[in-house]
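We close this part of the discussion by returning to an individual protein. The sequence in question and its structure tokens are set out directly beneath this paragraph:
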Amino acid sequence: MSLSDRLDRVLARAEEVRHILASAPGAEIGALSKELAELEPLVAKVEELRAATRARDEAEAMMADPEMRDLAEAEWLVQKDRVPLLERELQLMLLPRDAADERSAILEVRPAAGGDEAGLFAAELFRAYQRYAESRGWRFDLLDYDESDLGGIKGATAEIAGRGVFARFKFESGVHRVQRVPATETQGRIHTSTVTVAVLPEAEEVDVQVNDADLRIDTYRASGAGGQHVNKTDSAVRITHLPTGIVVAMQEEKSQHKNRAKAMKVLRARLYDAQRSAADSARAADRRSQVGTGDRSERIRTYNFPQGRVTDHRIGLTLHKIDRVMLGEFDEIFDALIAEDQAARLAAEAA
């Protein structure tokens, strides 16, 4: 089907939905209104494209008039370049969307290979993600933060709440490698460590049905580096989902009830992600290749501090601004990853 035919269908469907809404029963208004809200940006872009196409064609016709030629040629040049740009924008807008893209996300960061240095970098990367989320006005809620004795982490989990969070963060899942001289290194030798990152779309209760009979819930005393992470009551919670073997533990809160609620939120996200992966074998294979085992050789990105560079190995992008990235300036990386994904999907659709 040609692009023009697809755009005609978009306009026809938008008009149909408007007509149905005028007399729709109350139960259907919500879904129809949501569909129309999703169609309206497309409709506006289609109208913009067709206006530009008409202006281009009219300017081309006017170029035959000697008195209008200069003015018409200037307009034709503008619209000639604008039409293909609008067509590409529409092609991207028409690509099948990941249903989870608009959702909030659960972020998990854990040290892998490299001992204490991996834990220290995991904490720094986690804070960089927090800065990025806050710079976009998203809420960053700490779910669990297991601190090590040296100020690093054994693992940290957060909920990043806002519209479109998962779409921005989803390509972060995988192994991140760091190369630098640790603060504890007396010989000045560069060490290589790895950190694993997992980004899961947040799930609602309606997305995942969890039966109480499928859960084993254990409580125990929180432990950690001290301070707020340790208390004298059995407030920490470990939930095991028996059918899948997924285990989630939370101890950040002093309240057992709050820790249980947080653990259930993460459990639902992991179950939802597992369902999505099972439904899409290509995505499942991609996820395995991204997350891997945490070995130093299995990496999606390298942070090389001595050379001040960050390299994303999936798209061959290198930025010589590691200090800015570690302050949470991820947009250049995220934009490039999204653009590469869109280009690949456009190519697959055209094939």
Summary: The two ends are 13 Å apart (CA to CA).
